[in-house]
User: What shape does this take?
Amino acid sequence: MKFSLSKADITPQTPVWMAGFGDRTHESEGIHDPIFAKAVLLQANKTLLILTLDLSGGDRSFIVGIKTILEETFGLKHDEVLINFSHTHHAVAARGETHGERDPMYRSAIDYRFIRDTIVRLVTECCSNLEEGQLLLGRGTSIFGVSRRKLTDKGVLWKPTYNTPIDHDLFVFQLLNAAGERKGIIYSYGCHPTSMSSDNYLISNDFPGRTNSYLEETYPGTMAVFLQGCAGEIKPLKCSVGDDFISCTFEQMEEAGVDLAKDIVRVLEKQPFTPVQGVFKSILVEASLFMEHTPIEFFEAIVNNPQIGEVRRRGAQRKIKLFQEGLAKDRTSIYICIWHLDEDTRLIAMEGEISTEYSMLLKQLFPGGKTIVLGYSNGVTFYVPTRKMIGEGGYEVDYLHIGGPYTGIFLPEIEDIIVGQITKADLALRKSEASVN
Assistant: This one.
């Protein structure tokens, strides 16, 4: 197998409206830590490309635009490129140039041509610097995250829930060259980069930025790459105090990043690693998801209630306008990408803010301890709750009432659609492997 890695600083150098929190009142005021675009190229029987971006997300126009230019320039098919966002709430989003596929929710976005050209340059560097090596996988656990969904007799509250099951898996890949030197650490864990809150106006990648820098300081000559997992309802444990969440200081945020980095170091130093055989298979499917039809009176009641927050009332006003203009949609779709890295190692990457419940469900469906499940991949547009969550309600469910051009919240059947599409796509890869063997 061959591999290469490359990265570039993509930090905005002028004030921008930061994405992630709707209650910010002005543009950014400076930079706390840089944000990066990173590329990892893996080449065996076929070539796979991982791109990570320290941004809140990207719309469909951005994803299609980037994947198209990569196919035209390097011959990489859309299923062979995985774009994963850290989902930091202290930077901007990515928006493409095709207006029909642009997300109007992104108030400020990184310049498309700048990020496109940066990504092409990174992949060009990777293609020129491929070296023989080995990909190894290790697995540990971390209690870094905590659920923010507290189920009470008053409904689901936005509070720490310490006894709610979440996915604590911490997967770590190592890339070693032919001399046995560690060149890359790729780790995956599911947690919102929201140690700090909307009171922060400095550009930052939140805890993943500090986790990456700590790993690179600990292992000189190594590039650290964060793959965001299924973090829809997960916040850092560091910002939970008793029955509430706090906005961490910069010092507390950095401590959180170091905490996660030390968990990764423990995996690197104490857990067994197994070679990934490098028999690559990939598939990209698009799952159609459907919404209920909420009466327009529901949104009118929100607008007319002064006790409801301004952000939610503005969202309801946008929704009413969509209904009046006949533009509200009752369906959407998400990309689902599956990579088989060998017979036992599988990576499932889904678009959207995916609940940790999906990660746990899919790992039960595909036992063996070598299934890595990602959210925030190939676009981020909305929360994707499970059937259970839809029945309970809460922010991750109700978000569609104010976010996006939709007629209502998701129907509970979306869980069946998503799991069914993943099962079908994985079976297709299995059959293709059998035909090759």
User: Anything to note?
Assistant: The chain has ten helices and 24 strands. The chain has two domains: 2-285+331-436, 294-324. The chain has a mean pLDDT of 95.
